[in-house]
């Protein structure tokens, strides 16, 4: 951790001291009329700066329309207060590329690769202009096949009129990542605003020594795939004091070596490790923080603290679907608020979700291990979930001083009583109806729960809400200092429901158990 703090300080010093030369984009023909396409002027300013050994590319106040341009080593792109770099509405202004499977596609506004000591700072704005690439009058609906195993079937997340929570429908073509750094070292972003991204907003792929501080990132809560910050197979990353509101995941930390032919991936063999997120405010119609998914590379040593996640479909999501393992991850001193949503967003109101199921054929699944939650307060409209599988048992998960209020939802009739495991290969590991305890643990070894407080809204009447904690196919379960109950309407449910497990130590008295070996009662 000290190394990461040092890198943060070093990057700030680098930005402040090393950019003595200034290259004003207006001197290279840029026009701030909100109409003229300034891609060439911006690139010429960058190239001149690079040819002179580096410095500052200065964007003054005004709106400068642009397509794709590229930063280079030893350059600080500085956006003055009132400066706006706005994405062109014309796809012809973006660099195109052809994907073997998905065909013609487009880079976003800023694509920087193979660079060192590069930064974007200042109080200005990068605006991806997403309204021109989406139909905001239509919402993308979940298809009948995906919802066939849910409690509501075809009525799952139905909206009577309007677009509800979205997501809106994208045009056939749109620019991809708005700002991407690929295979870069010593990257710094500070104070800028990133808004209205048509796709992922800020992406770091195969980078080392990254610092993102004090940015405002509002990609658009209705826009599909409009992630906030994506960290892919990177090391030594600090994200702090950021305000992120994203349609898709607010922060995603993953270990992809490739991902659906999206640019910036080069068969990466780089572990994602040593990543700090602190003092951020996050909102998402998917996950506030997502770690993992179809990861080929391991993700490890991730530490999230003093961060709030509000009005999100899912709070913390840890997903294993491929061979890369997810390990040594801590969450501390956080507040999380989650809700049921309409529309085709992933997540279903759970404040904490950990799952490990097969998402790809012919690979040996990795393992989720050593996950810790300390001093977390949550409200949510669905239960917490720890859901492993026979081929990838989740290992060593600890809850210390966690409080959770399970709230009634106005959307229970159209969305409640389901688990969202999408990304799983088998239909049974995607969207399906389920009983909902306060905390569900399935195929877990070494689950420790200390001082967990669970409460339920008294207005909850749905029969699918059940026990306080339900665990099955487990080993070495420890529960101490639990305060809570089963769902208020379910008078027959025990506080703790256990089945098919080995080794239980608990001070809970109200227990229903089937096929459990090795029980020890705490006084």
UniProtKB/TrEMBL annotation:
<dbReference type="InterPro" id="IPR000743">
    <property type="entry name" value="Glyco_hydro_28"/>
</dbReference>
<comment type="similarity">
    <text>Belongs to the glycosyl hydrolase 28 family.</text>
</comment>
<keyword id="KW-0378">Hydrolase</keyword>
<dbReference type="InterPro" id="IPR011050">
    <property type="entry name" value="Pectin_lyase_fold/virulence"/>
</dbReference>
<dbReference type="GO" id="GO:0005975">
    <property type="term" value="P:carbohydrate metabolic process"/>
</dbReference>
<dbReference type="Pfam" id="PF00295">
    <property type="entry name" value="Glyco_hydro_28"/>
</dbReference>
<dbReference type="InterPro" id="IPR012334">
    <property type="entry name" value="Pectin_lyas_fold"/>
</dbReference>
<dbReference type="GO" id="GO:0004650">
    <property type="term" value="F:polygalacturonase activity"/>
</dbReference>
<dbReference type="InterPro" id="IPR051801">
    <property type="entry name" value="GH28_Enzymes"/>
</dbReference>
<dbReference type="InterPro" id="IPR006626">
    <property type="entry name" value="PbH1"/>
</dbReference>
<keyword id="KW-0326">Glycosidase</keyword>
<keyword id="KW-0732">Signal</keyword>
<protein>
    <recommendedName>
        <fullName>Pectate lyase superfamily protein domain-containing protein</fullName>
    </recommendedName>
</protein>
<feature type="signal peptide">
    <location>
        <begin position="1"/>
        <end position="20"/>
    </location>
</feature>
């Amino acid at each position: 951790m000290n190394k990461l703090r040092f890198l943060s300080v070093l990057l700030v010093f680098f930005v402040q001291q090393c950019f003595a030369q200034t290259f004003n984009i207006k001197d290279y023909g840029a026009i701030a009329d909100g109409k003229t396409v300034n891609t060439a002027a911006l690139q010429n300013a960058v190239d001149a700066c690079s040819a002179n050994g580096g410095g500052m590319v200065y964007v003054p106040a005004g709106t400068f329309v642009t397509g794709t341009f590229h930063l280079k080593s030893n350059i600080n792109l500085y956006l003055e207060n009132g400066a706006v770099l706005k994405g062109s509405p014309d796809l012809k202004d973006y660099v195109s590329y052809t994907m073997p499977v998905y065909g013609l596609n487009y880079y976003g506004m800023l694509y920087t690769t193979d660079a060192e000591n590069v930064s974007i700072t200042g109080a200005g704005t990068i605006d991806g202009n997403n309204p021109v690439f989406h139909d905001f009058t239509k919402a993308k609906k979940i298809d009948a096949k995906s919802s066939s195993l849910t409690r509501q079937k075809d009525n799952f997340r139905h909206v009577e009129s309007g677009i509800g929570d979205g997501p809106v429908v994208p045009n056939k073509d749109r620019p991809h990542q708005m700002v991407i750094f690929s295979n870069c070292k010593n990257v710094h972003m500070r104070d800028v605003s990133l808004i209205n991204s048509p796709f992922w907003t800020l992406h770091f792929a195969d980078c080392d020594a990254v610092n993102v501080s004090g940015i405002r990132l509002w990609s658009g809560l209705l826009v599909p795939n409009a992630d906030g910050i994506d960290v892919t197979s990177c090391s030594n990353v600090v994200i702090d004091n950021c305000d992120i509101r994203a349609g898709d995941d607010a922060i995603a930390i993953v270990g992809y070596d490739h991902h659906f032919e999206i640019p910036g991936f080069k068969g990466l063999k780089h572990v994602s490790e040593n990543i700090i997120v602190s003092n951020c405010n996050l909102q998402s119609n998917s996950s506030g923080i997502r770690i993992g998914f179809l990861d080929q590379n391991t993700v490890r040593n991730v530490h999230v603290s003093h961060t709030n996640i509000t009005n999100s479909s899912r709070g913390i999501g840890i997903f294993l679907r491929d061979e890369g393992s997810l390990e040594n991850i801590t969450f501390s001193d956080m507040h999380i608020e989650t809700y049921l949503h309409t529309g085709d967003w992933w997540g279903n109101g759970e404040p904490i979700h950990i799952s490990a199921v097969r998402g790809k054929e012919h690979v040996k699944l990795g393992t989720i291990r050593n996950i810790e939650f300390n001093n977390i307060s949550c409200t949510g409209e669905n239960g917490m979930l720890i859901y492993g599988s026979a081929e990838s048992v989740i290992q060593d998960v600890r809850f210390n001083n966690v409080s959770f209020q399970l709230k009634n939802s106005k959307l229970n009739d159209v969305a409640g009583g389901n688990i969202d495991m999408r990304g799983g290969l088998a239909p049974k590991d995607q969207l399906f109806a389920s009983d909902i305890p306060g905390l569900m643990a399935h195929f877990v070894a070494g689950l420790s729960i200390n001082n967990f407080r669970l409460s339920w809204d008294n207005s909850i009447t749905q029969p699918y809400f059940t026990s306080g904690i339900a665990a099955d196919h487990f080993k070495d379960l420890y529960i101490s200092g639990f305060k809570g109950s089963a769902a208020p309407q379910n008078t027959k449910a025990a506080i703790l429901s256990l089945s098919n497990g080995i080794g239980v130590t608990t001070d809970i008295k109200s227990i229903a158990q089937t096929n459990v070996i090795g029980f020890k009662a705490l006084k």
